Amino acid sequence: AQTVTQSQPEMSVQEAETVTLSCTYDTSENNYYLFWYKQPPSRQMILVIRQEAYKQQNATENRFSVNFQKAAKSFSLKISDSQLGDTAMYFCAFIYSNAGGTSYGKLTFGQGTILTVHP
Amino acid sequence: DAGVIQSPRHEVTEMGQEVTLRCKPISGHDYLFWYRQTMMRGLELLIYFNNNVPIDDSGMPEDRFSAKMPNASFSTLKIQPSEPRDSAVYFCASSLSGWNQPQHFGDGTRLSIL
């Protein structure tokens, strides 16, 4: 079974500072993708960034970047120059492809980390 | 571009009533997913469709839940009869073909069963 663990239920950061959210996963699959989704108080689930397992280069999207450590099965999210609008719950998610195709579409989510950005 | 559209945004109803949640996926997306989010269980995949055909409904909690996709631009999730434990936020998401395509979520429907 695939599992995703976010060990930080809550975090806070001052505006303009940098914060890192942790995520670890457990899988025996080789072909998979990892995602970070953001859920602000408005409730919408917004894709922040994604990482392909076979790519060694860490993904970057503007102020958001990941530190993907495949051997350690770790996928942390770094938010630079934090803004008040970054206040949200952040979910790490995992999806894999197996030969039988039975895993299709089955995103496995972590428990989420509530991030609060203080002015 | 219009995103995934869900209605209603909030639904409050009494136990035993039928509830219908609606979803319009992003045009051109041929996969549609229904999720449920609760504090206890987090985000769970209930069912997904490919080209309007249900592919995997193993996440549907029980026979009171049913989902349909009569055409490429509309899907419903129905609960009949509803129970208080069905109270949750229900999300619809859609994606292009390809197991690794990102899923785009709607704003969700907050369902409260009294």
Keywords:
heterodimer; A: 119 residues; mainly beta; six-stranded mixed sheet; B: 114 residues; seven-stranded mixed sheet; four-stranded antiparallel sheet
Number of E-state strands of chain A: 12
Kindly report how far apart the N and C termini of chain A lie.
41 Å
The Rg value of chain A, from CA coordinates, equals 14 Å
* Portion in strands of chain A: over 45%
Mean pLDDT of chain B: 94
Which class best fits the helix and strand makeup of chain A?
Answer: mainly beta
Give unreliable regions of chain B as ranges.
Answer: none
Biggest β-sheet of chain B: count, sense, barrel? Answer: 7 strands, mixed
Written as H for each helix and E for each strand, in order along the chain, the element string of chain A is: EEEEEEEEEEEE
Proportion of helical residues of chain A = under 10%
Helical percent range of chain B?
under 10%
Can you write the helix and strand succession of chain B as a string? EEEEEEEEEEE
What low-confidence regions of chain A span 5 or more consecutive residues with pLDDT below 50? none
For the CA atoms, what is the radius of gyration of chain B? Answer: 13 Å
The coarse overall form of chain B would be globular
Biggest beta sheet summary of chain A = 6 strands, mixed
Our count of helices of chain B gives 0
In round numbers, the mean pLDDT of chain A is 92
Shape of chain A: globular
